[in-house]
Write a structure and sequence with these properties.
This protein is an alpha+beta fold. The chain has five domains: about 5-130, Nucleotidyltransferase, domain 5 (2-Layer Sandwich); about 140-240, Alpha-Beta Plaits; about 245-370, YqgF/RNase H-like domain (Nucleotidyltransferase, domain 5), CATH 3.30.420; about 450-520; about 530-605, no CATH class. The protein contains 13 helices and 23 strands. The strands form five sheets. Strands 1, 2, 3, 4, 5, 8, 9, 10, 11 and 12 form a ten-stranded mixed sheet that branches. Strands 15-14-13-16-17 form a five-stranded mixed sheet.
Length: about 600
């Protein structure tokens, strides 16, 4: 085994414009120095990591390598796949000074060590197994199948080439799928399609990159490219980071854009989001940040396979509604919840996931509230979350409470100290009697608690009846609210219809007004009714298309007041104006002809003179 230790040199900073330099040392499994250097830039360290192939890189502060987390992940991703990065100053979830860690490990440290000495101490500590590994890789790998080059516009041959290329992507994707299935890999598969076939295929394999060696190979050709990439985390994580274990209920709306909503066992919102193009592991990581999921819910029936897989990985019970939740039902549930908690939810994916989580919560909330009330009345010190989790798993409330009481009793029994008998004790029988009496008292306590449980169970029956009555009333109110919502939608539709009819009435009124003006014009002889064949030859009217032509050129049809079959209604004044315009046009054309004839005569006379 080889370990590389590095430490930033004095006066250097990864945030400065000038690249920082480091002291580097490499030791073997015996602790012997095989390589050391000072004033080494980061590029040299990366080269040494590939050339000398150490098994570990030890640092006292991983953030000495980059100014921020994003760049740090990028730098660590450039290291060899099997290389492990260890922060030796983070031990048992506590940050310590490297000198203190070294002394605890039995290493001699005097004063403040130099960067080279610090690098050596870090390497030795990592060799001894001290420190915490830095996790930057997810336990998954992306396999991306795409075109080797862009395809531009072209003719028939180009289209045929595009089809062949898409067919090639499909064949390679099928072959990789067969290999993954044959070796039992868990994966998700997404494709980008067009009318001619597959443009791109992406496999998300839930295994590290190393597990795919020899099964799927990289490919980079003229027509096709197969890339295999380990997936890196967006944030640095230490290997022993502990997760929150508070029980939560999770609603999931699967699809290209995934909706996730997390609430606690009191129905309070903890987290809501929608993310595009995230895979199953990303969803699981988000959920685990907020607690231990005891119930996974969706708003559809049957349950999508992706939700089933997430539930199986998290070992959570799956809530399946009796039927697919309608849009009205989801809106009603979410709107009421949003009003209670002062939230504004516009995202449809968040709305659907939250509706699923709330539907699951409302189905079990009465049982959870009964259990809380029972525990308060019994006034016993048991873990409430474990009782509620037990109830969600499907056991009865009595079984869950008794189970926790038995745990407490067992704990109490274990705390009773055993008597220390010696041959010199004269009160042996007294102590035996005392223990027997204590044992009887414990049995009486158990019986008393069991009687109390039976009493509480009877009260629960009465309360359950009352809850059923309230639930019936609530359902009536729910139906009433739903009816109000439907009536509101109906009113909105009627308002839209009224507005449409009002616009139509306004159009008809304008038409009537125009017709009245035409009638008045006919009475006053200001307008004439003329057949299309009675019009002057320079005016043509197409009554079917409602078009007007003057000397075969189309003009604005507004000069005709009304088209009536093969007749039209026009103003007398308009006809006179058109007649004058026609005469002017004929006069202009005759003048043009006279000028043309004069020019021709002039040219002929000039030619004869020559």
């Amino acid at each position: 085994m080889k370990v590389m230790g590095i430490d930033i040199e004095p006066g250097q900073s990864p945030s400065s414009l000038k690249p920082p330099t480091y002291s580097v040392i490499i030791i073997n499994e015996k602790g012997e120095v095989e390589y050391k250097a000072e004033s080494s830039p980061l590029t040299k360290i990366l080269r040494l990591a590939w050339e000398l192939r150490p098994d570990k890189i030890a640092v006292d502060n991983v953030y000495e390598l980059a100014p921020d987390e994003k760049k740090l992940v990028k730098i660590l991703s450039l290291l060899p796949d099997k290389l492990e990065v260890i922060q030796v100053t983070y031990v048992n979830n506590t940050f310590k000074d490297i000198r203190d860690v070294a002394r605890e490990a039995g290493l001699e440290v005097q004063g403040k060590p130099t960067p080279l000495r610090t690098a050596y101490l870090a390497a030795v500590l990592a060799l001894k197994g001290i420190g915490t590994p830095i996790r930057i890789r997810e336990n998954k790998t992306k396999i991306i199948i795409s075109r080797g080059r862009a395809v531009g516009p072209g003719g028939m041959s180009s289209n045929r080439y595009k089809r062949n290329l898409r067919g090639l992507i499909l064949r390679v994707a099928k072959r990789i799928k067969e290999q993954l299935d044959a070796h039992g890999f868990d994966y998700d598969y997404s494709i980008k399609r067009s009318k001619n076939g597959i443009e791109k295929a992406v496999f998300t394999v839930y295994s590290p990159r190393e597990s795919l060696y020899g099964i799927v190979r990289k490919m980079k050709g003229h027509d096709l490219r197969v890339e295999i990439k380990p997936v890196y985390k967006s944030k640095i994580e230490f290997g022993d980071t502990k997760k929150e274990t508070k029980p939560v209920i999770v609603g999931i709306d699967p699809g290209i854009e995934v909706g996730i909503s997390i609430i606690d066992l009191h129905g309070n919102p903890l987290f809501m989001t929608s993310r595009r193009n995230i895979d199953r592991e990303d969803v699981i990581d988000i959920i685990r940040k907020y607690g231990k999921p005891v119930l996974i819910a969706t708003d559809v029936n049957p349950v999508p396979d992706s939700v089933k897989k997430i539930s199986a990985v998290l070992n959570s019970k799956l809530f399946v509604p009796d039927r697919r939740l309608s849009m009205d039902e989801k809106m009603l549930i979410v709107d009421k919840f949003s009003t209670q908690h002062g939230l504004k939810i516009d995202d449809p994916h968040v709305r659907d996931s939250l509706a699923a989580a709330l539907k699951a919560y409302y189905e079990i909330s009465h049982k959870l509230n009964q259990a809380r009330g029972l525990l308060r009345r019994m006034d016993i010190d048991v873990d409430e979350d474990r009782v509620l989790e037990c109830i969600i798993e499907g056991k009865t409330m009595d079984e869950c409470v008794e189970k926790e009481i038995e745990k407490e009793i067992e704990f109490t029994k274990n705390e009773i100290s055993q008597p220390n008998f010696t041959p010199h004790q004269t009160n042996y029988y007294t102590k035996v009697n005392s223990l027997e009496e204590e044992n009887m008292q414990l049995k009486r306590d158990i019986e008393r608690l069991k009687r109390k449980i039976r009493e509480m169970t009877f009260q629960n029956v009465l309360l359950q009846k009352r809850i059923d009555e309230i639930k019936t009333m609530y359902n009536k109110e729910l139906q009433k609210e739903r009816k109000i919502y439907e009536l509101k939608l109906e009113i909105e539709n009627y308002i839209k219809l009224i507005n449409t009819m009002r616009n139509q009435i306004e159009e008809k009124e304008k038409e009537i007004k125009s017709l009245l003006e035409i009638i008045e014009g006919l009475i006053n002889s200001r307008l004439l009714v003329v057949s299309s064949d009675q019009l002057p030859p320079y005016i043509e009217v197409d009554t079917n298309e409602k078009r007007v032509y003057f000397h075969s050129q189309q003009v604005d049809n507004s000069i005709v007041k009304l088209f009536l079959g093969d007749k039209v209604i026009v103003e007398k004044e308009t006809l006179r104006d058109l007649e004058i315009l026609n005469k002017e046009k004929l006069l202009a054309e005759s003048e043009k002809l006279d000028l043309k004839r004069i020019l021709e005569d002039y040219r002929r006379n000039r030619f004869r003179t020559k």
